[in-house]
Amino acid sequence: MKTYFKTVRDLPREEYFGPGQLTCAGCGPSIAVRWILKAAGKNAIVVNATGCIEVTTTQYPYTAWGVPYIHVAFENSAAVASGIEAGLRIMNKKGLVNENPKVIVIAGDGGTYDIGLQSLSGMLERGHKVLYILYDNEAYMNTGIQRSGGTPHFAWTTTSPVGEVQKGKQQLKKDIFSIVIAHKVPYAATASIAYPIDLANKVKTALDYTDEGPTFLHVIAPCPPGWKYEEKLTVELARLAVETGYFPLMEWDHGKLRLNPPSDRLIDKKNRRPLIEFLKPQGRFSHMTEANIKEMEKEIDAYWDYIVRLMNAFK
Question: Looking at the domain assignment, is residue 276 inside a domain?
């Protein structure tokens, strides 16, 4: 990751994501988009899949977007972005335009892990010069809090209920990061809205690397109604997701994997905060037993072991 910004004061003062959208109080995805566009700047075209951010920022006749923007379906954001990138490339080649805006997809977990996975894979395989950004609030929040491939184990949603037989989602969260890097992209990274400088620098780095091919950014973005917590805790939960080891900050950079602060010191479990600190404020996990918590801790430990093996394999 290149260093473009050292403090929040280094970020541009210009706002390309306007106030007054209809997002929920404490909306994690809207915080993410604000930082993303500050880092990206005005020379960008945003392709936005159906989801929370789309429905709350494009209420006709108003828009919150200060850059060229197109809303597309759940399943085809990467395909549309591919077409825009290819069209710009050909028009530049023919001398019809002399502009090279960056093409950015912004999509949620439903439009990435599940419905849009095939078009994302196609875009990555074809090598389009696009930055794909996943804002992950871990369920289909826009349509009523249904589980997605990004929903974690044991989490309550309206389609992974808690009752006598079932205790929340029965499957593990899909490892989208590994799926992406398996396409041999030049750059992929994870980020959290609690670390805006890390997020902004990764956006800039990813945009720089699109000259070589597609790049990917996975941003954890808590959702108050879906996660069932007090709105004021959004940034704190995004921080706890990292500090407990639940969501490691890392980068895949030209075939090498590395951890970013503070995750680089969390390989040692003793440096992680207890997982219960992340789980307890969230109503979606309120049913979890001590045995469930221990099971999730083992799952997180196993994922960290996997990350370490990857880092060692690709030194």
Answer: yes
